[in-house]
Specification:
Layout (H helix, E strand, L loop, with lengths): L6 E5 L5 H10 L5 E5 L11 H18 L4 E4 L2 H14 L4 E2 L1 H12 L4 E6 L1 H6 L1 H9 L4 E6 L2 H7 L6 H16 L4 E5 L7 H8 L4 E3 L2 H14 L11 E5 L7 H11 L5 E3 L5
Parallel strand pairs: 1-2, 1-3, 2-9, 3-4, 5-6, 5-7, 7-8, 9-10
Helix pairs in contact: 1-10, 2-3, 4-6, 8-9
The site of D-glutamic acid (DGL) has 16 residues, from helix 3.
């Protein structure tokens, strides 16, 4: 492993691009390998042990076959299911959105009443809740699973009336209970940012820790002498099942993130 070794990303699909795009923006010299497990998408409603097994297999591939120097679990559901175990098994640093998201929420919330929207798996794991309570035992977390949001983003419905209605239904209870901050605890949700902001009318600060994750990776790589000073790194995009990659979502990813995405199929689960 060395400076030119890649930073490895994994997600249940292509939602994790909301995080990898931030890393590419801040660290353009790094080589990137992104693995989306579209064959098993979505992870949200799956059992924790199942998601953990998938994530461990992908991390094993990224570390042992691709020589990754740093792993980003760019999926909230997989982070809560697998990061603790993976950190014991593998010797490279492994991070996900939970710790950075919790930190940002606690730092920015004035009344420490923090809302969380995420998949069923992330909410029921209590991963975010515990991370927040660890930072401030007096904080209050209001958490609701919002399963319809992943579907609407996959279908590319980011701002139509149906989406606005669903968001209003999901987000009004957070405003009514006095939350001043809302964590987007799912990789898909930043694509809904404009409509979310329209619905909540400035009543909550919206948190998605993409930039914070990228900054933390930069610090960690610099501290260990592994920051790649190149001008432009290589980007490799892999998926366990190409036919399961939503065309609409891929189009949005290309347009909104300004990324040149070309996914190749590599099934690690045969
Ligand atoms: N990537 C997942 C997450 O951030 C959302 C999609 C899924 O359910 O797999 O939790």
């Amino acid at each position: 492993m060395g400076i030119k070794s890649p930073v490895g990303f994994l997600d249940s699909g292509i939602g994790g691009l909301t995080i990898s795009s931030e890393v590419i923006r801040l660290l353009p010299g790094e080589n990137i390998i992104y693995y989306g497990d579209n064959a098993h998408f979505p992870y949200g409603p799956r059992l924790q042990w199942e998601v953990r097994d998938f994530a461990l297999r992908i991390i094993d591939y990224l570390v042992n076959e691709c020589d990754a120097k740093y792993i980003v679990v760019a999926c909230n559901t997989a982070s809560v299911a697998a990061i603790d175990v993976a950190s014991e098994v593998f010797s490279v640093p492994i991070i996900g959105p939970i710790t950075e998201g919790a930190k940002e929420a606690v730092q920015s919330s004035k009344n420490q009443k923090i809302g969380l929207i995420a998949t069923e798996g992330t909410v029921s794991s209590q991963g975010y809740q515990n991370a927040i309570y660890k930072l401030n035992p007096d904080a209050e977390v209001v958490a609701h699973a919002t399963p319809k949001l992943v579907d609407i983003v996959e279908k590319g419905q980011l701002s139509d009336l149906e989406t606005e209605g669903i968001l209003r239904e999901y987000l009004t209870p957070f405003i009514n209970t006095g939350c001043d901050s809302l964590i987007l605890g799912c990789t898909h949700f930043p694509f809904l940012m404009e409509t979310i902001k329209k619905v909540i009318e400035g009543k909550m600060n919206v948190i998605f820790p993409g930039t914070e994750i990228a900054e933390r990776i930069k610090r960690d790589l610099a501290d260990t002498g592994l920051l790649n000073p190149d001008k432009k790194g290589d980007e490799i995009y892999l998926t366990s099942q190409l036919s399961n990659v939503s065309k609409d979502f891929l189009k949005i990813g290309r347009e909104r993130l300004g990324m040149n995405l070309d996914f190749q199929e590599l099934n690690l689960f045969e």
